[in-house]
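#structure-requests
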Amino acid sequence: MITSAYAAKEAYRNLSQTEQREDLEELLGSVEVVPTVASTDHPLFSTVKLLDKDRSILLTAISTRATHLFTGGFQHFGAYY
């Protein structure tokens, strides 16, 4: 399983309790954290409409040849589920 550095940072930022953050850090120990794809300029986005922050999540998944993308961002990715 992989995640982008940006996604890991966002997950950490969204947790309010120390115990939650410690649990996340433990879980990330078994996950490969890869650099986030910074460029959000890609031909794909002429038809796929996402915010820049979500574009980097999708492009990182594509660049690592991920077979699945798990996200809690239904509000932004919902049309593509």
